[in-house]
Design brief:
alpha/beta; Dihydrodipicolinate Reductase, domain 2; nine-stranded mixed beta sheet; single chain; 13 strands; Rossmann fold
Length: about 375
């Protein structure tokens, strides 16, 4: 792992998720840009002290020469390091799992896509919500045509944790997210807006073709957006509304997706992830439950527990790692490797960064822009 040192939120989450299914063990890391803090993190993670490195370059060089070298690299750093770390790892011959967004800027992700393609190595992006069983079920429903032609999509991702200038207090997570040099130009749109955007395309199988966005910085002095609303045009003629905010006071992690077709609609909420509601033009409302034997093969494949035993964020995160591990095992045994279509990769990374870039451009020009 690169990143995930003392005070980090997402690093420990990556570690727990990666190890949940017993296929992966974290054995090395460069956890901080401070050698001392990296060593302290290594102690906390209970890895060999000799493999808690002072920097990712040192880690890659040392691991390449070990007979028991690492198999892949996890990137859990602020966004400005995603490209240099991923590029260095891939050029050193190590596959990569990266936290999202893929890079800090759109030009960087185009460079990364070239490196991934030329390396021929596996690369995955942890859009966590793609790992939920009922998100996979919603995706299967859309693909089956059960909803009819999709006409309207509404996605919202509402948080309230940045309603006040938390970055001014020195809080680590807020400080780097509010700094364009570390985060990139997109604040809320990059942090959670990309999750909402990915969910739209992932579940419906459609692609956004045009964007009309308004981005705002509501907290005085904040240098990145903390609130955004975007209208979307999709390639089948459907329209969508995307709302993302980190100044929605009182909200926690309110991600919700609704998809409306000619014959029916579906509704999924991240805070109630084990239920998927389907409403029909002329018929009763249906609630599908996680672990139901009637679910699609894709949904059943990522269910670990019997019905009524809720699975949540960590389990969804772990699904992505399990799929990546299975692919690496096949790849290591000489089988043809291909990331499963259910696992987000570099294409999702490019489209997510394009969404940030286009939303910012649209907001500046106060107009529709082509995706």
């Amino acid at each position: 792992m690169v990143g995930g040192g003392p005070g980090a939120f997402i690093g420990p989450v990556h570690r727990i998720a990666a190890e949940l299914d017993g296929k992966i063990e974290m054995v090395a890391g460069a956890f901080s840009q401070s050698a001392e803090r990296s060593r302290a993190a290594g102690v906390a993670y209970k890895i060999d002290p000799a493999r808690a490195y002072a920097g990712y370059e040192e880690m890659l060089a040392a691991e390449r020469s070990r007979p028991d070298a690492i198999d892949f690299v996890v990137i859990a750093t602020p966004n400005h390091l995603h490209l240099p770390v991923a590029k260095a790892a891939l050029l050193a011959g190590f596959p990569v799992v990266s936290d999202k967004p893929a890079t800090a800027t759109y030009s960087e992700v185009l460079e990364l896509a070239t490196v991934v393609r030329n390396s021929g190595l596996p690369y995955a992006l942890t859009h966590t919500y793609a790992g939920y069983s009922l998100v996979r079920e919603a995706r299967a429903i859309c693909a089956s045509g059960e909803l009819g032609k999709i006409r309207k999509i509404a996605v919202e991702y509402l948080q309230g944790w940045l309603s006040q200038p938390l970055e001014a207090t020195g809080q680590k997570q807020a400080a780097w997210r509010a700094d364009p040099a570390l985060n990139g130009p997109g604040g809320c749109i990059g942090d959670i807006g990309t999750h909402a955007f990915h969910l739209v395309e992932y579940v419906t199988g459609l692609e956004v073709t045009d964007v009309n966005a308004t981005l705002r910085s509501m907290v005085p002095g904040r240098r990145v957006d903390d609130d955004c609303t975007a209208l979307l045009q999709l390639n089948n003629g459907a329209q969508g509304v995307l709302m993302a905010s980190q100044i929605a006071a009182g909200e926690e992690n309110g991600l919700r997706l609704r998809v409306y077709g000619e014959k029916a609609s579906l509704d999924w909420k991240q805070e109630d992830p084990n239920r998927l509601r389907i409403k029909r033009v002329d018929g009763p409302e249906e609630i599908r439950h996680a672990a139901g034997g009637y679910l699609s093969a894709d949904a059943r494949a990522v269910t670990r527990l019997p019905g009524g035993h809720p699975e949540g964020y960590l389990e969804a995160f772990a699904v992505l790692y399990r799929e990546f591990a299975d692919g690496l095992i096949a790849w290591g045994s000489g089988e043809a490797y291909g990331l499963p279509k259910t696992l987000p990769g570099i294409v999702a990374g490019v489209r997510g960064m394009r969404f940030i870039e286009r939303a910012i451009e649209s907001s500046k020009s106060a107009s529709w822009v082509e995706f």
